[in-house]
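Table S2 (continued). Query chain:
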Amino acid sequence: MTAREYQEAQCTDTGKGEDRRRVRGTQRTTTADGITHDSKTEAQRWEELKLMQKP
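Corresponding output:
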């Protein structure tokens, strides 16, 4: 199987090119200050950066 054949096999039948492979953690999001982050760690880092910006 070539790389192109593999990519075509992973695409949906609609032709939009969506990848069918399962992406880990997409269901778990965290909201901090009204902003949705992909992970708890990302939300914590956002809080750290906000604190570092304060004069």
